[in-house]
Model the fold of this input.
Amino acid sequence: MHPFTLERPRDLAAVLALRAQAGRNDAPVEYIAGGTDMVQLLQEDVRRPERLVSLGRLLDNRIEAGPNGLRIGAGATMAEVAAHPAVAQQFPAIAEALLESASPQVRNQATMGGNLLQRPRCPYFRDVGYSACNRRVPGSGCSAMQGENRWHAVLGTSADCIAAHASDLAVAFVALDATVEVLNPSGRRNVLLNDFYCLPGATPHIATVLEPGELITAVSVPASPLSSRSHYLKVRDRASFEFALVSAAVALDMNGSRIREARVALGGVGTKPWRVPQVEAALAGSDLDRASLRQAAALAANGAQGYGHNDFKIELMQRAIVRAIETAGARA
Amino acid sequence: MARFNRRRRELLKLSAVTGGVCAAIPLVPGTLADAAEGADMAPAGSANPAPAFVNVTLRVNGTEHPLTLDPRTTLLDALREHLHLTGTKKGCGLGQCGACTVLMDGKRVKSCLSLAALVDGRDIKTIEGLAEGDELHPLQAAFIERDAFQCGYCTPGQIMAGVACIAEGHAGSPEEIRKWMSGNLCRCGAYDHIVLAIRDAAAVTRGG
Done:
């Protein structure tokens, strides 16, 4: 770990002032909340901030469910959100995505804001022994492109980066039209989570639309007839404590055995949580029979590109969509 | 060798910078060497070659310990190297193995992923605080009864995680135990016996 000065401000205004002096994303000033990703990045020298600003005890950690939907403070832990009765009953995909993430210990430590801002799990990004990583060192190249890329993305990639987004939670949130509340020195703004992450393009080191000093303070999920019939399916190499190779978050509004409306987002396959509106459009009015679902799911492969080891994801993600919809559709 | 020499040289440089402070504070292995490398790599004219130490009071097994720490010190390193509570084990240091599991405010956490300075005042329980005098916690006794370890290195983390697993109500079946204990690895492969020990203890207790 490189040396840093630890700042423990008394309020969020002081927090914002400290971070606002720094640049965007790869700043010499970083926030730390639960620390489960940041401490790993520090330990492995991936991040080398000069100052680390603690958000401890300053973030809202309330979980509120009402007629307008769900609002979760950015400081709530993964375990707290997963265990909240309203989340489990009215937004099952969120609870499932959380319970299929990480380990029980990490879920007790990691916060909502930190989960959404976790860095990718690309082994070349995480290992400074590889000099080429555009996300870590802009302009240095991409080791994954010709390397071991079984875990990498097939959607939203660029010539500069193919790292998959790692958050399960973000996939469920994107499927359910979640919005992040962002605080900055001049006020607040709301950003639809689907618009929050940047495609890597030629600037993979810029991961989100957050400006210097901005901070996620809460996540809101609107009330919807679809959310209670939602499901998160995670496909991975181990049954537990493993990142997704492919995942699908789906939400359905059913009219008898027919789908009135559907939401579908994919994880493990995109450089950001990947909503597939073309699949949703094809599912509207469809029955739950395997052939119809399969036909709609095939549209998810539009624009998908494999890089060798990860070619299998293009087929696997279509099957994951079908299975997740069958599971959600069978729910009472 | 060249790397070692450079580190050693920079270590001496850093020691000179921080002076008597270092001498008075127990060292975290690797920390100063890393600090030295940081000093080495910091841009010319950097105002921050060495971090300011921070004051923290760790509350461990009911006792408060005021400490002055390098801000990089993890809770795990503070427990082992400063408080000499070496029951909590250091495995991967990256949150992947679970050997460092402790309870914080009654909940299981990985102590390698928390900076000690940021858990000031939290109620921390380690394996050393689990027994009541000479009477082992039921899960400790069950680990012995079920022979739930070989080398024993992961055992303190397994037991602290197991205590939490039972208290959370996640020890209802072998399948549930396996899922909720998946954050703790055992390279000897004693999983079958660990599951049996947790089932036994769950039958007689809820919580630590």
Q: What stands out?
A: The longest helix of chain A spans residues 312-329. The longest strand of chain A covers residues 246-255. Chain A has 13 helices and twelve strands. The interface with chain B takes residues 1-6, 8, 32, 35-36, 39-40, 42-44, 48, 50-52, 54, 56, 79, 102-106, 108-109, 238-241 of chain A (CB under 8 Å).
